[in-house]
């Protein structure tokens, strides 16, 4: 899938004039966004990343914690391009003194969703968080042993502290909050993102409209880059209220796909409480539907921006000014819990309708 870095590096090397020759002469380096930021902040003195970002490139061996020579050879990527891989809380050099008036140590680096996992204090195996921004990303801590997914989840690294790796199952949904933006900017049905909740609350309960927001393809567990979005169940009575409700419900349905796949991969984890964060979690209606369609409690913390919180904790932990994981976990605070109220028969009917809509949208059938 074009989501990952490895095939993009290979394409650039194979298709941009002069790039491969320069790479082989050691004139070029590669990095994900964090690597580029570190390079810029340190004045080009440090070429590094952390294990969570490296795990997202398609060319990092998450079991050996090293760049995978076989994968790099398969994609014809020189190992000399790649950054040094460090712990998530580690010494990444110091910023150029001219930037901020003095040198500041860089001690915390993590991928977006891994940082949110840390910020949600999901340090125990089986804990799950889901972040709702432009897209949606669910991640389950699986402990010190990687769980190999049989259901198209990503087996990945949650974080690496003091040289010890904690693994995770992750599912990526490409369109969540972006569908609300589409209602506002594309269709002009709303003026503000918050308008969707009031519309959804007033939607006709007898209409079951489904939006499959495959605007840029479908992510996990389908990985169908050629699928495109569609609305199903439209009648002449369908209007902005029903479409707004379908947009919000699509977030719950897609999350359910991820949680079900994770449960199938690791049934020992049971049905854990889902910790949520990100801009869309401000909508009580959306979070209640999420709890209903999952059939499990959904916890919204007092700090919604947990990605920033997790990155800050990693930096503070390495600097010795923030407590360890156990003490940090004790500081996590619940703002509101959403308990499921939907009858199981209704939940099953809605999910069957969703799965039929996805099937009709797919470009290929499994």
Topology:
Blueprint: H1 5-15, H2 19-24, H3 33-41, E1 48-50, H4 51-54, E2 60-61, E3 66-67, H5 69-75, E4 84-86, H6 97-100, H7 112-119, E5 128-132, E6 136-143, E7 154-161, E8 164-173, H8 177-186, H9 195-201, E9 210-212, E10 230-232, H10 240-265, E11 274-277, H11 284-294, E12 298-301, H12 306-319, H13 325-330, E13 334-338, H14 344-361
Parallel strand pairs: 1-4, 5-11, 11-12
Antiparallel strand pairs: 2-3, 5-6, 6-8, 7-8, 9-10, 12-13
Helix pairs in contact: 7-12, 8-10, 9-10, 10-11
CATH architecture of the largest domain: 2-Layer Sandwich
Task: Return the structural class.
Answer: alpha/beta
Number of strands: 13
Mean pLDDT, all residues: 95
Strand order of the largest sheet: 7-8-6-5-11-12-13
Strand content: 15-25%
- The total number of structural domains is 2
The CATH first-level class of the largest domain comes to Alpha Beta
**Annotation field: number of helices:** 14
What is the overall silhouette?
Answer: globular
Q: What series of H and E elements makes up the topology?
A: HHHEHEEHEHHEEEEHHEEHEHEHHEH
CATH superfamily of the largest domain: ATPase, nucleotide binding domain
Which regions contain 5 or more consecutive residues with pLDDT less than 50? none
> Describe the biggest sheet?
7 strands, mixed
Measured as a percent range, the helix fraction is 25-40%
Alpha-carbon distance between the two ends: 16 Å
Q: Any idea what the radius of gyration is?
A: 22 Å
If you consult CATH, what is the topology of the largest domain?
Nucleotidyltransferase, domain 5
């Amino acid at each position: 899938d074009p989501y990952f870095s490895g095939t993009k590096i290979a394409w650039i090397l194979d298709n941009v004039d002069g790039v491969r020759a320069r790479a082989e002469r050691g004139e070029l380096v590669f990095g994900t966004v964090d690597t580029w930021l570190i390079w810029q902040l340190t004045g080009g003195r440090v070429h590094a990343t952390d294990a969570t970002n490296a795990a997202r490139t398609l060319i990092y061996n998450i079991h050996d914690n090293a760049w995978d020579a076989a994968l790099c050879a398969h994609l014809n990527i020189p190992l000399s391009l790649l950054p040094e891989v460090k712990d998530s809380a580690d010494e990444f050099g110091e910023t150029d003194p001219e930037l901020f008036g003095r040198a500041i140590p860089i001690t915390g680096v993590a991928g977006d969703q891994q940082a949110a996992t840390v910020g949600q204090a999901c340090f125990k195996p089986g804990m799950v968080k889901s972040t709702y921004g432009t897209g949606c990303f669910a991640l389950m801590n699986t402990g010190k042993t990687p769980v190999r997914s049989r259901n198209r989840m990503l087996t990945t690294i949650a974080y690496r502290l003091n040289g010890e790796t904690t693994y995770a199952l992750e599912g990526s949904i490409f369109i969540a909050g972006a569908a609300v933006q589409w209602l506002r900017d594309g269709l002009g049905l709303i003026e503000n993102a918050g308008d969707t909740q009031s519309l959804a609350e007033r939607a006709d309960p007898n209409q079951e409209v489904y939006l499959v927001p495959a605007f840029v393809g479908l992510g996990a567990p389908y990985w169908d880059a050629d699928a495109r979005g569609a609305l199903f169940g439209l009648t002449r009575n369908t209007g902005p209220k029903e479409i707004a409700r379908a947009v919000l419900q699509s977030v719950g349905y897609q999350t359910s796909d991820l949680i079900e796949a994770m449960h199938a991969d690791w049934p020992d984890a049971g049905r854990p409480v889902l910790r949520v964060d990100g801009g869309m979690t401000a909508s009580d209606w959306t979070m209640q539907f999420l709890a209903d369609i999952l059939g499990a409690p959904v916890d919204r913390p007092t700090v919604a921006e947990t990605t920033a919180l997790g990155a800050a904790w990693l930096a503070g932990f390495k600097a010795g000014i923030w407590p360890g994981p156990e003490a940090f976990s004790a500081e996590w605070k619940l703002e509101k819990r959403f308990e499921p109220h939907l009858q199981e028969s209704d939940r099953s009917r809605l999910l069957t309708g969703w799965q039929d809509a996805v099937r009709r949208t797919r470009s290929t059938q499994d």
